[in-house]
Amino acid sequence: MSQPLMPKATAVWLVENTSLGFEQIAEFCGLHRLEVQGIADGEVAVGIQGIDPVANSQLTQAEIDRCQADPKARLKLLKLDLPQPSKRTKGPRYTPVAKRQDKPDGIAWLLRHHPELKDSQISKLIGTTKTTIQSIRDRSHWNMTNIRPRDPVLLGLCGQIDLNSAVDKARKAAERAGIAIPAPQFEEEAPSPLAGFRLGSD
Questions:
Q1: Contact present, 128 and 107 (Cβ < 8 Å)
Q2: DSSP label at residue 162
Q3: Cα separation of 139 and 61, whole Å?
Q4: For residue 162, what are the CA distances in angstroms to 26, 152, 171, 175?
Q5: Cα(122)–Cα(104) distance, rounded to whole angstroms?
Q6: pLDDT tens digits, residue range 88-117?
Q7: Residue 79 has pLDDT above 50, yes or no
Q8: What domain range includes position 32?
Q9: 83: in domain
Q10: Does residue 62 sit in the same domain as residue 117?
Q11: Cα(151)–Cα(88) distance, rounded to whole angstroms?
């Protein structure tokens, strides 16, 4: 059943301005009966301004009067011809401005540790373009000198489950196609300044 816009605020108004039963209000607003009772007792929705469902064309006064006269009757929401907001389709992942500068680091990490991933998969995980991925791969990125490969999960650019799923799909696709998966590339660590130093008694 469809619910009114801002159901809790609508319930506040109905409790304050009508003699409708708690069950009637609860069912219309998609709330539990005890929530509506809590609104009436001043324990729930404290500070919420009531919204008149008649004024915003979600109910008629005649419908309220009908249900006030019959406790068993149920309020019916008016059908509106207003266009409903469209559901957000799956698209590029939104990344907060503060984290966007970390994207190249996350891309570099994926290219190094998971070379089996396709550019389209990296693009979906990080929310970037294939052009950016290619520029980091061939080291032509404008900020290449400052890019440090860092785990995109730790950077908050993607989830571990999403990354694991993408890697698993990439590996299975490579196996089906008979393509050898490249070994991850790791930079050689600089030798420790203590290398070769032996502790011993004088």
A1: yes
A2: H
A3: 69
A4: 39, 11, 14, 20
A5: 11
A6: 555 555 555 556 789 999 999 999 999 999
A7: yes
A8: 7-69
A9: no
A10: no
A11: 28
